[in-house]
Amino acid sequence: MSCTDDSCAVVxxxxxxxxxxxxxxxxxxxxxxxxxxRRCGHPGCHCATGEKHGPVFYLSRREAGRTRMVYVPxxxxxxxxxxxxxxxxxxxxxxxxxxxxxxxxxxxxxRRR
Length: 113
Ligand SMILES: [Zn+2]
Known about the structure:
By secondary structure, this protein is of the alpha+beta class. The chain has one domain. It is built from 2 helices and 3 strands. The protein has helices at 6-24, 77-104; strands spanning 32-38, 53-63, 66-72. The chain has a 3-stranded antiparallel sheet, covered by helices on one side. Strand 2 (53-63) and strand 3 form a beta hairpin. It is elongated. The relative contact order is 0.15. It binds zinc ion. Zinc ion (ZN) binds next to loops.
């Protein structure tokens, strides 16, 4: 498109946001990916003195003031990481869109105090 006027730019920007949201929403996952290493508790095990078992992966998030850990099987680790990144981007886009909406309503001017 060769449109350069302002309203047209807004339309294409909103179109791009929509396209990106359509790609993000089916993948996004809530939380951050945590790698956990553990000692199993058997006194004779190598982990008692040396290298711990793991990593085991979890999606970790704060919910109503408590940390919730959701187990992620190793084979889904990459997908979980991509999901976390997708949700991060989704939130970022949400702020960008909300700011543009505020500007469109003429709410851009700030009062300093
Ligand atoms: Zn062990």
